[in-house]
């Protein structure tokens, strides 16, 4: 144990390294009250070094002379990730810091270890104070995340000069700048044919089905998107692209996603099938312009919902990319629910390109209709493990889809898949020890497994009391009792932290629902209100809001 730490800093300091060091110091201080100061004498010396040789983004933690501990990064990110591992391996008590036993070398297996923040519906990313989001970006980076992506959703606004558009751009840039400042990458998402709310009606895309091979209309279409084959539409969309690149020109963008459906698409005769026709018509010039504006950037071409609304898009993309395109760096592939697209698993990735996934970590168990995260934490270790095992041999990493902070455990699971194919339950145990307490690992881990099973439910928003029927309620009482017992053993820091509260409230809500024939009790309502405050969801859409009476009433009156 140590009551004070002395930090020996790298020989060459820069703003990124200073930010990383401050992040480490803050984590130690908040969790234990122990000061970790450069230059001052301390009971434990921690030497921080940056020197190539381990491998990109890799780190080593080793014992040094005189009992010191040396944390060495191959580069700045390696130092960041090494400090993250060191923090998770340590033990904390008021006034005491105990370093963990892990020593060795670690380097990432997958180059892309991202996260996508959906900043909409007045969810936490849309409404929380920017400073708290910056802090969250830094904390995700400690787990091995190396890029944060966001989307400027044009359809809400009437041009880039719209004050609401400017406010959203400022928020998105603050999130991405936080990523840059801690030394990790930033990314933007574009819908290939997206448009503003007041887009020219005569240039708008077709979104209907029953013709040109479309058996279902594209899901999530806003009906303001443009058809690139209508005279003037492509030029207008590329002008908007220029405006967006200019707006984000002071961010170091490492990735651009170009997205086909959900939202987006055009089903007209000239664009069909969208995924290998109209989509590519827009995607290529967008990608080439991105490379000109951000030479270090990589282009991720999404295949989301290929072959959902029409047939032959995967096969068509393979034909189109028989000669690998020079404007695409990665193919993104995934699907909603329990499945991964079969085509790239069975036939390989079109063009032989690297592939990344897009695991949906937010909505699973809600039937797709929410409220997502409305009941608290939604740990999905076994679900995510199955999806990973099915596709990992084809993947170069990925970008989990996040609607909020309630899937924090799932984020850690995914980034550790990408880092080293680490089993989900092993990550859960490390998460519990770090964020809660080593003494409660086995009990809380067992509760988390139960809470994964009890997550799927069906809502009935009825008067005067709503009901949420848990499909597999067995074990809800056991999970709650385990969480209650653990709560009594936590430090004040851990007990009050939002990461514990969202898990505690989830166990409480499930227990109360089962006790009251799935009807919302007074204690449930109180828990929903606390979650609303934690999520900054007072004005959130029903899909991303805890189902308080007020949220249900607002949905009914909308």
Overview of the molecule:
There is one protein chain. The chain is of the alpha/beta class and 558 residues long. Among the domains are: 4-106, Chitobiase, domain 2 (2-Layer Sandwich), CATH 3.30.379.10; 435-557, no CATH class. Helices cover 39% and strands 15% of the residues. It has 18 helices and 19 strands. The strands form 4 sheets. Strands 9-10-11-12-13-14-15-16 form an 8-stranded parallel barrel. Helix 4 (130-142) runs parallel beside helix 5 (163-181). The longest helix has 19 residues, at 163-181. It starts with a strand and ends with a helix.
Overview in brief:
This protein is an alpha/beta fold and 558 residues long. 39% of the residues lie in helices and 15% in strands. Helix 4 (130-142) runs parallel beside helix 5 (163-181) and helix 16 (498-515) packs antiparallel against helix 17 (522-535).
């Amino acid at each position: 144990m140590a009551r004070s730490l002395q930090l020996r800093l790298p020989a060459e300091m820069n703003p990124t390294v200073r930010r990383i060091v401050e992040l480490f110091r803050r984590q130690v201080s908040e969790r234990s009250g122990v000061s970790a100061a450069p230059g001052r004498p301390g009971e434990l010396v921690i030497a921080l070094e940056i020197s190539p040789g381990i491998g990109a983004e890799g780190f080593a933690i080793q014992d040094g002379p005189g009992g010191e501990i040396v944390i060495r990064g191959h580069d700045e990110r390696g130092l960041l990730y090494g400090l993250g591992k060191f923090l998770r391996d340590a033990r904390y008590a008021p006034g005491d810091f105990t370093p963990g036993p892990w020593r060795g070398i670690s380097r990432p297996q997958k180059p892309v270890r991202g996260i996508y923040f959906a900043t909409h519906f007045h969810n936490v990313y849309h409404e929380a104070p920017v400073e708290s989001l910056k802090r969250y970006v830094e904390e995700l980076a400690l787990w091995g995340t190396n890029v944060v992506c966001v989307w400027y959703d044009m359809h809400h606004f009437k041009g880039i000069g719209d004050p609401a558009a400017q406010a959203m751009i400022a928020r998105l840039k603050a999130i991405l700048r936080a990523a840059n400042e801690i030394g990790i990458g930033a990314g933007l998402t574009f819908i290939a044919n997206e448009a503003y709310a007041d887009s020219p009606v005569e240039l708008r895309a077709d979104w209907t089905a029953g013709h040109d091979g479309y058996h279902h209309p594209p899901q999530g279409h806003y009906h303001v998107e443009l058809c690139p084959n209508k005279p003037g539409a492509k030029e207008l969309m590329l002008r908007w692209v220029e405006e967006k690149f200019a707006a984000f020109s002071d961010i170091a963008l490492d990735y651009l996603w170009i997205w086909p459906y959900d939202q987006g698409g055009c089903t007209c005769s000239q664009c069909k099938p969208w995924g290998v026709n109209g989509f590519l018509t827009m995607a290529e010039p967008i990608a080439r312009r991105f490379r000109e504006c951000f030479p270090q950037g990589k282009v991720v071409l999404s295949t989301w919902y290929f072959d959902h609304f029409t047939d032959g898009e995967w096969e068509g993309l393979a034909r189109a990319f028989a000669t690998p395109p020079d404007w695409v760096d990665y193919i993104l592939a995934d699907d909603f629910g329990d499945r991964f697209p079969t085509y790239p698993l069975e036939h390989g990735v079109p063009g032989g390109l690297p592939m990344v996934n897009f695991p949906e970590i937010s909505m699973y168990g809600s039937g797709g209709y929410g409220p997502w995260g409305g009941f608290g934490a939604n740990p999905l270790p076994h679900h995510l493990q199955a999806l990973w095992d099915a596709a990992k041999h084809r993947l170069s990493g990925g970008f989990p889809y996040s609607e909020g902070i309630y899937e924090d455990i799932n984020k850690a699971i995914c980034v550790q898949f990408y880092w080293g194919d680490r089993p989900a339950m092993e990550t859960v145990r490390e998460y519990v020890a770090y964020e809660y307490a080593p003494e409660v690992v086995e009990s809380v881990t067992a509760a988390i497994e139960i809470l994964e099973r009890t997550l799927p439910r069906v809502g009935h928003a009825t008067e005067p009391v709503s009901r949420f029927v848990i499909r597999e309620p067995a074990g809800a009482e056991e999970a709650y009792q385990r969480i209650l017992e653990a709560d009594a053993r936590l430090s004040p820091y851990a007990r009050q932290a939002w990461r514990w509260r969202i898990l505690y409230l989830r166990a409480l809500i499930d227990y109360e629902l089962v006790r009251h024939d799935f009807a919302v009790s007074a204690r449930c309502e109180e828990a929903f209100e606390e979650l609303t405050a934690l999520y900054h969801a007072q004005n959130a859409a029903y899909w991303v809001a805890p189902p308080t009476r007020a949220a249900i009433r607002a949905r009914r009156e909308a």
